[in-house]
Amino acid sequence: MTTTTTQTTTRTIDVPGATLTYDVRRNERSPEPPLMLIGAPMAAAGFATLASYFGDRTLVTYDPRGSERSVLTDPASRVDPDVHADDIHAVIQAVGGPVDLFASSGGAINALALVAKYPQDVRTVVAHEPPLASAVPDREHALAACRAIHETYQRKGAAFAMSHFMAVVSHQGPFTAEVAAQPAPDPAMFGMPAEDDGDRSDVMLGKTILTIPSYEPDWNAIRKANARVVLAAGEESEGVLAYRGAVAAAERLGTQPAIFPSHHGGFLGGEYGQSGQPDAFAAKLREVLG
């Protein structure tokens, strides 16, 4: 299925366990490879502002399986970075690669899986703030904190789980057993009602909170890949898990993280009610892509 607007072509592709939706903003005059922008669980809609700064490139965005327009055909299927890497590979094959790749948050972890499995798919990867609980020195307690979010979801529903998630991702410094054991804050602190609607189908809270932060990339395969991999961290994020994950990943690869303006959502310009410093962020991304 194909629908076309003035600048964007939207297509779907069937993959095992899901139907993916992806968008292509094609610039036939660009001498550069396509630039793909990905998150997880954040979908293509989150990159509208950042994409507006790269009209000189062919741009590719997609919704990860289970997010927004990309539907899980098998709700019981496992959703982990290796599966996401297969999905991203399928999209790159459909649009024509290799690509340059900007990947943020869980998408950055999925991008590391992609480089290990399909190194020919990418030229440069900018992996922005991967929340790699598996890679930080306090991994035992960081992973326990992630599991606790899932447990809160199963017991109390999405509102309490999201408040628990916000507390964990904003925690400054190493996790301890005491921090990991802290209960979810009152959802009202984050402007959310506390009612449990009984739904347990949220992909992030029900699946990926367990499989993405705990993922252990194949560092040896990534080091051997021809792709250039740049870890990135936001200057306002120092101390939180996503920043620390970027630092830990860079150490594994023998590099230093590139410091980007703003915070975890530094490229946002109002998407999902959040804003960073998209002007400065886009300029830094263009500089890093070289």
Report on the structure:
The chain has 290 residues and is α/β, with parallel strands linked by helices. 36% of the residues lie in helices and 18% in strands. The chain is built from ten helices and ten strands. It has helices at residues 48-51, 81-95, 106-117, 139-156, 158-169, 177-180, 203-211, 219-224, 241-253, 278-289; strands at residues 2-4, 9-15, 18-25, 35-38, 59-63, 71-72, 99-104, 122-128, 228-234, 258-260. Strands 1, 2, 3, 4, 5, 6, 7, 8, 9 and 10 form a ten-stranded mixed beta sheet that branches. The protein is globular, with a radius of gyration of 18 Å.
Radius of gyration: 18 Å
Number of helices: 10
Q: Name the beta content range.
A: 15-25%
The helicity comes to 25-40%
What's the main sheet like?
10 strands, mixed
* H and E order: EEEEHEEHEHEHHHHHEHEH
| Arithmetic mean of pLDDT | 95
Beginning-to-end CA distance, first to last residue? 35 Å
Uncertain stretches: 1-6
